[in-house]
Amino acid sequence: MDLSHYSEPKPHHLKRIIWYLVNRTVFRCIPTRTLRSLRNLILRLFGAKIPLHSLVYSSCTIWAPWNLEMGENSCIGPKTQIYNKAKIRIGDNSVVSQGAFLCTATHDITKESHPLISFPIIVGHRVWVAADAFVGPGVTIGDGAVVGARSVVFKDVEAWTVVGGNPARSIKKRAMDKE
């Protein structure tokens, strides 16, 4: 394989540079809970579809806000990586915990040029992606599912299922007690 001529399209290149600077400075300086609406407004300015009262921690890294959709009362935790070259949609009342990595892109290893390819990630309603989990391109996590800490998910997760491990496998069905 000869990658000496490798290149990839760079749509939104100037916007990416401006966002990178904002994400690494102003965005990180806004206190997490007290001024989260201001941080969400900044995300909206860059094209994110996010309610003002959802919680996005200041230490997370979002690659392309214009490819992010979040539902009501959802949370992107501290030090998460949201590598969204394709859309990432997070449903209502869902949590992506600290250190998790949602990655929509990979490379096509069947082609000599090794082109970048990307597929959307969908996180349903009432989902918990636990600490340090990795969710790969094209994965759909069904409503109510739990992805255990440090899990690596490359295949869809059924609704109301708990998965864990590397690669992630079904552990059990999730049942919730009424409070």
Brief synopsis:
By secondary structure, the protein is α/β, with parallel strands linked by helices. The protein has helices at 13-24, 26-29, 36-45; strands at 55-56, 61-62, 68-70, 75-76, 81-83, 88-90, 95-96, 101-103, 105-107, 116-118, 121-123, 128-129, 134-135, 140-141, 146-147, 152-153, 161-164, 169-173.
- State the shape: flat
- Beta percentage is 25-35%
CATH topology: UDP N-Acetylglucosamine Acyltransferase, domain 1
- Top CATH class: Mainly Beta
DSSP helix fraction: 10-25%
**Mean residue pLDDT:** 94
Radius of gyration (CA) equals 17 Å
Total DSSP helices: 3
Based on helices, strands and strand pairing, what is the structural class?
alpha/beta
CATH-level-4 superfamily name? Hexapeptide repeat proteins
Number of strands: 18
- Total number of domains: 1
**Helix and strand string, N-terminal first?**
HHHEEEEEEEEEEEEEEEEEE
Low-confidence stretches: none
Question: What is the annotated CATH architecture?
Answer: 3 Solenoid
Cα-to-Cα separation, first versus last residue: 58 Å
Strand order of the largest sheet: 1-4-7-12-15-17-18
Q: Could you give a short account of the major beta sheet?
A: 7 strands, mixed
Layout of SSEs?
Blueprint: H1 13-24, H2 26-29, H3 36-45, E1 55-56, E2 61-62, E3 68-70, E4 75-76, E5 81-83, E6 88-90, E7 95-96, E8 101-103, E9 105-107, E10 116-118, E11 121-123, E12 128-129, E13 134-135, E14 140-141, E15 146-147, E16 152-153, E17 161-164, E18 169-173
